[in-house]
Amino acid sequence: MAAKLNYEVLNKSGYDGYILKDAPVKVLQFGEGNFLRAFVDYWFDMSNELADWNGKVALVQPISMGLTKLINEQEGLYTLYLRGSENGEKIDRKRVISVVDACYNPYDDADWAKIIEIAKSDDLEYVASNTTEAGIVYDGSCTPDQLPPTSFPAKLTVLLHERFQAGKKGVVILSCELIDNNGKELEKCCVQHAKDWGYGEDFIAWLQNDCLFCSTLVDRIVPGRIRDAQEVARLTEENGYDDPLLDVGEVFGVWYIEGPAWLEEKLPFKKAGLNVHVVPEVAPYKKRKVRILNGAHTGFVPGAYLAGQDIVRDCMHDDTIRGFMNKMLYDEIIPCLPLDKEDCKNFAAAVYDRFNNPFVDHQLMSITLNSTSKWKARNMPSFLEYIETFGKLPQALTMSLAAYIAFYSNDVQRREDDGLVCKRPAGNEYKIQDDAWALDFFYAHKDDSAADLVKAVLGNKQMWDQDLNEIPNLTETVTRDLELIRDKGVLAAYASVL
């Protein structure tokens, strides 16, 4: 049986990659899960190698149960595989990450005392976090005498107050939670706790002026653990050690950090040549991600499923589906984005590589979950802006709206508690999952003609906040597209706009 990974075992294994055993702790990170270890810790680890940053990350387990014991048994070491496709080439990169110093459980008194010590350290420069979308919430029941306070913002407020009282300089806070304005929302919570607890105006001024709360946009798919026992056994034998913390992420990764220009010079990422960028605001980059990456998924997937495809990668090998996606992205979505067009095209090219990832079987049916709200949020803004800009309907986006309707209405079988059951043209049943009102609507209209169904869907203000029938030529065009899908199939319909 292979020994568990640590520095001694790694040395004996013959690993010849970059490793840094000792360095001062410069980052206090809330979260020790797969995403942060494949994303934030990866960037800092690369900065040690490429920019001589010479720093370590101390991890804080955000909830009472976590990975502290395992991480410390492995002395912070873990193996990261970045897998995917780059410029059409299969990539499988292994790296042992050595940036983690240790992990601490704040619900252990001794560990909480150690976390406070790190918070007051002269070496500390950054706080990073990903405590899930529910992590950045103001909880008025938290008090500073709790050891520790329950919520993440309350813990952070206590630690920053300890740092302030020790007379230390402010820190940069890099919030990675998947909510809008994550950094600013976290700052609001901390200021409110400081007011509640009577921490004083001087501390609040230090919090707002000396500390920098950065909103950030993170982008890397992290499947995390490998679940195939045979592959785990193969990698254990190859590596010469056992690693229960082994992590897997896609090769693509980009991090946008909202902040002033000086921050880019302070952070080590630019010097290391990494795909991490300090920008005046992250909102345009979020819009780019939602419109291009997420919009592509929602735009072609429901139709591709009806055409007989099951996973995203196979769609990229179908000339018609790929051509349809590219027309939608390059001819209709990118021209309406308020960003550098070449930058958007490069991002779209990376999207193709990401969808073509040979290591990830991304199921189309998982993407179709809640397609009604997804089409409204991801595709409708591009659709409406195209009409406003060019004075005509975008062919591919209009067809994708027809494909969405086709997916929700193809040979409807029955309404079940957890979904609407339809039949694919090939004959097998599939279950659509969405808000109950949306499924009830399609079930109620299951016997409508194409024309009546389109008129009802486009006129449903609960779906779109407006009557889309009022857009010139839209009702007739979507009806014609839906009839084409039903008569000739999705591939013929997608091909008709190319």
Q: What is the typical, i.e. mean, pLDDT?
A: 96
Tell me the total number of β-strands. Answer: 14
Unreliable segments of 5+ consecutive residues: none
Query: Class of the largest domain in CATH?
Result: Alpha Beta
**Overall tally of structural domains:** 2
- Using only CA atoms, what is the Rg? 25 Å
Short précis:
The protein is of the alpha/beta class and 498 residues long. 48% of the residues lie in helices and 15% in strands. The chain has helices spanning 7-13, 34-38, 40-51, 68-73, 109-119, 152-165, 182-196, 201-209, 229-239, 261-266, 269-272, 283-306, 312-315, 319-333, 341-355, 364-367, 371-390, 395-409, 436-444, 450-458, 461-464, 474-488, 490-495, and strands at 25-30, 56-60, 78-86, 89-97, 100-104, 126-129, 172-175, 212-219, 247-250, 254-258, 276-279, 414-416, 419-423, 429-432.
